[in-house]
Design a protein that fits this description.
Pfam families: PhaG_MnhG_YufB (PF03334)
GO molecular function, one term: sodium:proton antiporter activity
Order of helices and strands: HHHHHH
Number of domains: 2
Radius of gyration: 30 Å
Family: Belongs to the CPA3 antiporters (TC 2.A.63) subunit G family.
InterPro entries: PhaG_MnhG_YufB
Organism: Crystallibacter crystallopoietes
Structural class: mainly alpha
Helix content: over 70%
Oligomer: single chain
Strand content: under 5%
Distance between the termini: 76 Å
Number of helices: 6
Length: about 180
C-alpha cells in the first residue's frame, strides 16, 4: 500500500465522519423537543464534527503551512461555542422557554427566586419613596431646589426620602449625585 493512498482514505473518512456529525447536530437541532436538548445537539457534535472536517482537510492538503490556520479555526470554535450555548441557555431560563419537568435538578431556582424577591423589595421601597415625596411638599421643594442647583432632576435622588430632615436629605443627595457623576 502506498502512503498517499492511506492518507487519502484517512482524509476521506475524517471528512465523511465530520459531515455526518454536523448533519446529526442539524437534525438534533430541528428534532429535539426543548431548548436545553437542542442546545446540546447544536454544540457537542458540531464541535467534534468540525474537528474531524479540519483534520480531514489537513490530511488532504498535506501542507504544514495550513495546520496553524486550521488549529486556530478549531480553537476559536472551541472557545465560542460554550459561551454562546451558555448565553442561549441563560436567556431560555430567564424567559421560561424550557420544560421544568425535564430537569432533574434546577440549581438556579433558588438564586432566581432570591433575585426576584430583592427586585420586588427594591420596587416597593422606590414606590414608598415616591409616595413620601408626593405627601411632603416641603421635602419635594427642597429636593427640587437641590436638583436645580446641580442641574439634575430631583426624581433621581434615591434614598434621600428615608432621612427625616429635608436639608440634610438634600445635602446628602447632592453629594451622592456628585460622586456618581
Amino acid at each position: 500500500m502506498n502512503t498517499d493512498f492511506v492518507l487519502e482514505i484517512a482524509a476521506g473518512l475524517c471528512l465523511v465522519l465530520g459531515a455526518l456529525m454536523s448533519l446529526a447536530a442539524a437534525i438534533g437541532l430541528l428534532r429535539f423537543p426543548d431548548l436545553l436538548s437542542r442546545m446540546h445537539a447544536a454544540t457537542k457534535p458540531q464541535v467534534f464534527g468540525l474537528l474531524l472536517l479540519l483534520i480531514g482537510l489537513a490530511l488532504q492538503l498535506r501542507s504544514w503551512a495550513a495546520v496553524p490556520v486550521l488549529i486556530i479555526a478549531w480553537l476559536f470554535q472551541l472557545l465560542t461555542v460554550p459561551v454562546s450555548a451558555h448565553m442561549v441557555g441563560r436567556a431560555g431560563y430567564r424567559t421560561k422557554h424550557l420544560h421544568r419537568e425535564t430537569l432533574s435538578v434546577d440549581d438556579l431556582d433558588a438564586v432566581v427566586q432570591k433575585a426576584a424577591a430583592e427586585e420586588a423589595e427594591r420596587r416597593k421601597a422606590d414606590a414608598a419613596e415616591e409616595a413620601a415625596l408626593a405627601a411632603d411638599p416641603e421635602l419635594a421643594a427642597e429636593l427640587d431646589a437641590a436638583g436645580k442647583a446641580d442641574e439634575k432632576p430631583a426624581g433621581k435622588l434615591k434614598g434621600a426620602l428615608r432621612i427625616k430632615e429635608p436639608k440634610e436629605a438634600a445635602a446628602k443627595a447632592s453629594a451622592k449625585r456628585r460622586r456618581e457623576s
